[in-house]
Amino acid sequence: MNSKSYTVCRIRDGLGLDALPVAKITEYPLEERDYRPFAQCQICVNNETELLARLWAFEVSPPPDSELRAVLHLFRDKPERALHIIARAEDGLPTVRAVVVENDAPIAEVRGECRDHSGEDLQGIYWGGEVTLHKDALEQAGGPVLFAPGEGFPGNFYKTCDSRTPHYGSWSPAGWEPPYAADGMGRIQYVSY
Asked: Using the 8-state DSSP alphabet, how is residue 86 labeled?
């Protein structure tokens, strides 16, 4: 596991999302053409019962296989099991889903509120997704989760594309063979302010 660390804040009633720490995807070790889309992610715990995540990339007209992904090994009794939050730029509109993965195979879809997150601001045009996942739904899909202040788990955030402008980026330095491997994870740490 890498030494990079991201802080997960606890909030009340979904307020203050714009003030949360941001994990910037800046590690593009395989990129030779200098194509590194600016992408970032945020996660937090809301009211001690929900995991909220926002993933977005500044990328105009992304190809259908352009993808943002958060990989979070937050299952207490199954460290090899991970929550994958995936946003894809399919047919010009972002799609978002949350899946529990073990040994590179999906084992359960996590029910929650998933919505696209796209628009334009002073930095440019962006696309991505937001998810709200209840703790009960996470535990039903994958088992007990780490949610308390002081707890932490391995995780990473990715921006990838295989087609028109291939690129493979991550927040924490990742080994890409295989992708999403445990040795390419940073540390995700809960705090309570």
From this structure: E
Q: Are 80 and 71 within 8 A, CB to CB? A: no
d(CA 135, CA 30): 36
User: From its phi and psi, is residue 104 left (phi > 0), alpha (psi between -120 and 50) or beta?
Assistant: left
Return the amino acid letter for 112. G
Burial 142-160 (b: 16+ CB within 10 A, else e): beebbbeeeebbbbbbbbb
- C-alpha distances (whole Å) from 92 to each of 61, 64, 65, 161 are 7, 7, 11, 15
By C-alpha distance, which of 42, 40, 52 is closest to 12? 52
Per-residue model confidence as pLDDT tens for the chain (193 residues): 566 888 888 877 766 677 889 999 999 887 777 788 899 999 999 888 899 999 999 988 888 889 999 999 999 999 999 999 999 987 767 889 999 999 889 999 999 998 888 888 877 888 999 999 999 999 999 999 998 888 899 999 999 998 878 899 999 998 888 888 888 899 999 887 6
